[in-house]
């Protein structure tokens, strides 16, 4: 059983043994077995959300759970972001296409954002891969659709407009798959969606007010991203001690220095990371020494996992801040695994996340690499280097529509980097009915999210889960 669970990212499943045309026909055959109507039919779920949440959190740092719950309790959308395990479990009980791709695994609207290419170009695309796996293409799309509904409700958009938008997102995904199928392998591999691409689309928008609003937001993001680097982080998060050495500021329990034993374990993990990093990065890091280490929690879904920041100082006095983030086993499998088995499977998790990110992103952080220490798996990346996002709760409906359609386009493009992806094209051929069908599925599942959220809030207030701080 455990071997099957660890096999979820077996790359042999996506090896090329057929031509593109043959894969398209295989996708059409899959459509004949599992129709669009079946894929869009919602099956009610029967489970206790608290049981799943508690089991997931049993692998996390217990003193951080009250803060984690506070973030999840804000509204149904933040709850949805923090409980990927619930939807992962529920999707197992829905009809599935059996058409595989490398998935993001958590493709909600807030997991798209801006990041820097090695050439310092500002790109837009998927930016969270903790739940990445090989699975059915529609799992990512369904996750995106439900998030668009939840965030749109918070924005006060009408249900009629949101229903139309959700249908349009599936249509955009279908058309983007069709477009990718027409491209060469090299065109797909080198495709990048840069900041300027979004600016150009904004300029083409017919609504002058919405275009102006989104253009202002993008300009702020560009300006802010250029200031988002390690030196700015040092100014904001560090202070000099009595000996003049820089130290991270404590802000317990979210940010706290680690003990001597853990410090040495992390140093060991950092040395292993350097061995796993690209050769040019290994050479570059030879200029730096470790100045300080702190445990620093981030996000919503990741809040409570083991996450550390390393402050490195170069021989010229400059600084580099790296994030070491725990790579948990997939929540897709986590619920079926004892704690010890989950930890034992860890070494594969960091490599899974790194491989998926390098595949699904058009250009990844050159510092990205996996490591492990103290029996757990981690991955390392630059911390906040030119990483920015659009606050979807501050968009009017026209701007929100553009943003969500862009996410659908980039999701399809990312999916098409998997060698057997032409099967998706075959499955989606002449399947306009999916636009309306998946919208209805998403609306039905949104009601389940809201029901789970109410249960979660009730459990917090009644002491069944750690109280919010």
UniProtKB/TrEMBL annotation:
InterPro entries: DUF2252 (IPR018721). PANTHER family: DUF2252 DOMAIN-CONTAINING PROTEIN. This is DUF2252 domain-containing protein. It comes from Limosilactobacillus secaliphilus.
């Amino acid at each position: 059983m455990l071997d099957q669970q660890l096999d979820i990212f077996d790359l042999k499943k996506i090896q090329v043994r057929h031509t593109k045309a043959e894969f398209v026909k295989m996708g059409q055959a899959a459509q004949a077995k599992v129709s669009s109507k079946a894929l869009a039919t919602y099956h009610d779920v029967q489970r206790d959300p608290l049981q799943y949440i508690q089991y997931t959190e049993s692998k996390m740092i217990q003193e951080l759970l009250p803060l984690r719950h506070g973030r999840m309790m804000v509204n149904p959308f933040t709850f949805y972001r923090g409980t990927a395990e619930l939807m992962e479990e529920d999707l197992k009980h829905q009809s599935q296409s059996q058409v595989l791709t490398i998935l993001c695994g958590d493709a909600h609207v807030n997991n798209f954002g801006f990041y820097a290419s090695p050439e310092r170009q500002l790109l837009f695309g998927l930016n969270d891969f903790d739940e990445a796996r090989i699975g059915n293409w529609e799992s990512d799309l369904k996750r995106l659709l439900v998030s668009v509904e939840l965030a749109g409700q918070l924005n006060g958009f009408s249900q009629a407009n949101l229903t139309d938008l959700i249908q349009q997102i599936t249509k955009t995904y279908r058309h983007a798959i069709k477009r990718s199928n027409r491209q060469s392998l090299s065109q797909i591999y080198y495709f990048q969606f840069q900041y300027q691409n979004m600016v150009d689309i904004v300029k083409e928008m017919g609504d002058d007010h919405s275009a102006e609003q989104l253009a202002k937001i993008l300009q702020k993001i560009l300006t802010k991203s250029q200031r988002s680097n390690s030196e700015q982080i040092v100014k904001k998060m560090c202070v000099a001690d009595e000996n003049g050495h820089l130290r991270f500021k404590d802000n317990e329990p979210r940010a706290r220095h680690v003990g001597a034993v853990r410090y040495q374990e992390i140093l060991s993990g950092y040395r292993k990371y350097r061995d796993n990093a690209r050769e040019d990065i290994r050479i570059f890091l030879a200029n730096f020494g470790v100045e300080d280490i702190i445990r620093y929690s981030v996000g919503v879904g990741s809040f409570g996992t083991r996450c550390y920041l390393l402050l490195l100082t170069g021989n010229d006095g400059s600084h580099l801040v790296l994030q070491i983030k725990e790579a948990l086993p997939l929540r897709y499998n986590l619920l079926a695994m004892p704690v010890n088995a989950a930890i034992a499977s860890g070494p594969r998790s960091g490599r899974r996340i790194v491989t998926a990110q390098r595949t699904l992103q058009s250009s990844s952080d050159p510092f990205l690499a996996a490591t492990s220490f103290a029996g757990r798996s981690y991955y390392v990346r630059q911390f906040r280097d030119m990483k920015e996002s659009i606050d979807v709760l501050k968009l009017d409906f026209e701007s929100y529509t553009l943003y969500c359609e862009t996410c659908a386009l980039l999701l399809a493009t990312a999916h098409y980097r998997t060698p057997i992806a032409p099967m998706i094209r075959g499955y989606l051929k002449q399947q306009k009915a999916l636009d309306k069908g998946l919208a209805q599925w998403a609306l039905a599942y949104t009601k389940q999210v809201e029901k789970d959220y109410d249960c979660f809030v009730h459990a917090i207030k009644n002491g069944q889960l750690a109280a919010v701080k």
